[in-house]
Amino acid sequence: MASSKEIRNQIKSVKNTQKITKAMEMVSVSKMRKAQDRMRQARPYAEKIRDITAHLSNANPEYVHPFMQKREKVKKAGIILVTSDKGLCGGLNTNIFRAVTHKMQELHAQGADVQATTIGSKGMGFMYRAGVKIVSQLVQPGDTPRIEKLVPIIKVQIDDFLKGEIDAVYLAYTRFVNTMTQTPVVEQLLPLPEGKLDRPDPGYSWDYLYEPNPKAVLDELMVRYIEALIYQALAENMASEHSARVVAMKAASDNAKKIINELQLSYNKARQAAITQELSEIVGGAAAV
């Protein structure tokens, strides 16, 4: 059995750790609420522009934007991976890494190479370890995502797609469901998936009148479509990160409390044994005298 002094040091160490995890939990609770509000505010716009582009993919416009042109075979693909910059958020990053690894294995099985754009230091480290070429990266995007920070790094993948150097672009992030549940998502960003609507087929086709002309409207709309989806992905990932960290830090604080109680019980037993031994020595000495 450990001595009383050793147990006291262990209790002190666990209490110090508990203070840190409790403080991190409180900070993440504050950030989580702001991140969730920001994510929910951005969702209606992202969903509406996603619906419009899905309708466009079913329409027959005079001008077909390059983002809507299908490639016969995917020889090279780009992946935009959104992760957190910090750890201590449970299995958040591990789950999206597993989903991305599965997607890369599918692409490699089809004979396609992969290049990556990473948002977040955890994703950058993962891609480096996986041996994937990183063409652009962004670390420390801050607590408030800004589209002007995202555009330059995303433009690298978009330009490669327009030049024909890559045939598809995928977006990987963690979608926020609720505080306890976050779902890893890997979805096709380019070329535009045909008819990607969550609602049932209405049974009729869509057509549009363009002013001043289809090219001007679609060129502008497609850029806004990409920006909206990337911004929403980052907002979803931030909300998921803080929610996962709150849950992880609360579990760590609760575990620390259990460990402290167990160590306190061991300390009391050790102290009682030490007192009993001292009394036995005193009584034995008095009897010898």
Automatic annotation (TrEMBL):
Membrane topology listed for this record: Peripheral membrane protein
MF terms in GO: ATP binding; hydrolase activity; proton-transporting ATP synthase activity, rotational mechanism
Domain of life from the UniProt record: Bacteria
Keywords: ATP synthesis, Cell membrane, CF(1), Hydrogen ion transport, Hydrolase, Ion transport, Membrane, Transport
A Pfam family assignment: ATP-synt
GO biological process: proton motive force-driven plasma membrane ATP synthesis
Keyword check for Hydrolase: yes
Subcellular location(s) per record: Cell membrane; Membrane
Statement: the UniProt record of this protein carries the keyword Repeat: no
GO CC list: plasma membrane; proton-transporting ATP synthase complex
Quaternary context: F-type ATPases have 2 components, CF(1) - the catalytic core - and CF(0) - the membrane proton channel. CF(1) has five subunits: alpha(3), beta(3), gamma(1), delta(1), epsilon(1). CF(0) has three main subunits: a, b and c.
Function: Produces ATP from ADP in the presence of a proton gradient across the membrane. The gamma chain is believed to be important in regulating ATPase activity and the flow of protons through the CF(0) complex.
Similarity field: Belongs to the ATPase gamma chain family.
Protein name per UniProt: ATP synthase gamma chain
Species this protein is from: Lautropia mirabilis ATCC 51599
Lineage: Bacteria, Pseudomonadati, Pseudomonadota, Betaproteobacteria, Burkholderiales
